[in-house]
Amino acid sequence: MCGIVGYTGSRSAQEIILKGLKRLEYRGYDSAGIALSFSDRIEVRKAEGKLLNVEKVIEPEKAVLTTSHAGIGHTRWATHGAPTTQNAHPHRVGHVVLVHNGIIENYQEIRERVLESGRKPQSETDSELFGFMVLDEMEKGAGLAEAVRRAFAGVEGRCSMVVLSEKEPGVVVGVRDGSPLVAARDPEGGAFFASDAQPLAEYVKEVLYLENGDLAVATSKGLEVRDLKTGARVERASSPLEWSPERLEKGGYSHYMLKEIHEQPATLIDTLNALVDRKEALAPFQLVQGKASELLEKATEIVFVACGTSFHSAMVGKYWIENFARVPVHLELASEFRYRKPVLAPGTLLVGVTQSGETADTLAVLMDAKQAGYATLGITNVRGSTVSREADAVLYTAAGPEVGVAATKTFTGQLVALITLAGFLASRNRELTTEMRSSLFSQLIRVPHLMTDFLEENSGLGSSVRKAAVALQNVSGFFFIGRGTSYPIALEAALKLKEISYIPAEGYAAGELKHGPIAMIDENMAVVVLAPRDSWRDKTVSNLEEVKARGAKIVGVGHETDQRLRQLCDHWIPIPELKMGTESIDESLIPFFVTPVIQLLSFELALLKGTDIDQPRNLAKSVTVE
Ligand code: F6R
């Protein structure tokens, strides 16, 4: 939810922390701050709003602050306390200064103790209270690392913290317990901390994904990891960093989101390469991940748990698995499921779909299920994320770093993982012959070519997507409707549009319109009809006629040669035919073509509205609170 960076060593801490926070700003951007340690003091600077505001604050004193070689920084997504400068991190309590990501659940009780002792917190945050606890331990004689360890014993919740003290210049202490924190040894001496590996990519080739219950102590000499409970030293193996720093740049695009939309063909190829053995021509959709295969072999039913965009990809996955493999699949919003008393059949496999691998509700469901004896599988884009440690097995999508807050290429990566599961289970259940699976697989590996052509044609001024966006920029709201796998894509379309443009939008199963939502339709509304030429097309076209008759402006998304559909629409966005040369493409693969349309349409509308597309208001990429 929040982003943390810490550093100690021989380089300029200011530079590393500001650059690192920029990379982490997608995690939250309500306020930000930095603390820099000197031999005699710690300087803290913070500001409301984006990191840019902190940079402005420190601009006049940059030359002095840059001489510090240790410090911490934070970019915040507010949970306890409004997004004000006072509530921004780092928090200072006496000589202790800290940043925090997560929630201290027993903060009321700690706050009362602090107030009873005659002291007054400066902020409304739970985080600052931890500073009092560390200070108390240091006043009893403990060094910084030991004080953090002892203080943490009194904290309930899911947190990561990074702490400095003026009494120990150059020492940076990090704790991971629930919220993510990685550490890395600096080859030039010293060490780094960050909420994820992205900010470290330009300095190191390996990182240590700290485990829950780890306390890491960084000095200019290096890094030591200890057990938070006992204080005993523990060894943590380093993992290679697979993301090069270049992948974190915009690469000539105006926005990260646009770049990431265009990276989807590569995501498809990379994810397939990561998940299956492409050389195994006789066994298409066989997973290279042995443990995942083992769990899938045994699964009698599947429950997908997810939130937001990942919930929509899981819904497509449900349709695919039921269609191809005839395995019962249930789809659950993680935030609802965990508080109900769901009934799970024996043999059920719980699959958490989460690009970040950190979504609190999704993780909680998986952990509860695991404890109750069910098998768990994670589908995530982030190596070393919490889901990858907690689930029994994990399938990684290979979308690479996604910086835009609105998910795009990670959604496509999830679709690839899910169709692979469907193919795997279809093979297990002998529902599809080897020939049928081979044919589906060979069509799938050709989708990126068609997708690339489509993306090129639909970028820029003359594109049909841009024309529709310009014509409809002032409507009062959008409905997206579809049937079959176009229904979850309609839901995703409405979410995407709301997220980045703030235009009211809803997604509906086309057949549901007449059960209520159609009352909203008038000439000020736009209805985007997802009606590709699949088994549901004719029914969807009937629904189109219903909204057209009530005056809505119609945007049709359909196959190039579908003239009849085209004539019914005010605006027309064609998708590639289900053909590659003379070979036809299975209609199941249609989501890979409709998805870029709805992403680009949202992008173009947001561009016209002038919103902050890569960092929309009130959102954060990784939702580690419940
Ligand atoms: C929308 C979006 C969110 C996430 C949701 C779950 O663009 O990104 O709706 O999909 O917060 O996140 P993950 O997939 O990380 O569990």
Topology:
Layout: E1 3-9, H1 13-24, E2 31-37, E3 42-48, H2 51-58, H3 62-65, E4 70-76, E5 91-93, E6 96-104, H4 107-116, H5 127-139, H6 144-152, E7 157-165, E8 172-177, E9 182-185, E10 190-194, E11 206-209, E12 214-219, E13 222-227, E14 233-234, E15 239-240, H7 256-262, H8 264-275, H9 290-298, E16 301-306, H10 308-325, E17 329-333, H11 334-337, E18 348-353, H12 360-371, E19 375-380, H13 386-390, E20 393-396, H14 409-428, H15 434-444, H16 447-457, H17 464-472, E21 477-482, H18 486-501, E22 505-509, E23 525-530, H19 537-548, E24 553-559, H20 563-568, E25 571-575, E26 579-580, E27 583-584, H21 591-609
Parallel strand pairs: 16-17, 16-18, 18-19, 19-20, 21-22, 21-23, 23-24, 24-25
Antiparallel strand pairs: 1-4, 1-10, 2-3, 2-4, 5-6, 6-7, 7-8, 8-12, 9-10, 9-11, 11-15, 12-13, 13-14, 26-27
Give keywords.
eight-stranded antiparallel sheet, binds fructose -6-phosphate, globular, seven-stranded antiparallel sheet, alpha/beta, 626 residues
Describe the structure.
With 626 residues, the protein is of the alpha/beta class. Helix content is 36%, strand content 23%. The chain has 21 helices and 27 strands. It has an eight-stranded antiparallel sheet with strand order 3-2-4-1-10-9-11-15, covered by helices on one side. Strand 23, helix 19 (537-548) and strand 24 (553-559) form a beta-alpha-beta unit. Helix 18 (486-501) packs parallel to helix 21 (591-609). The radius of gyration is 26 Å and the shape is globular. The N and C termini lie close together (11 Å). The structure holds fructose -6-phosphate (F6R). Residues 307-310, 354-356, 359, 362, 406-407, 495, 499, 622-623 line the site of fructose -6-phosphate. Fructose -6-phosphate binds at residues 307-310, 354-356, 359, 362, 406-407, 495, 499, 622-623.
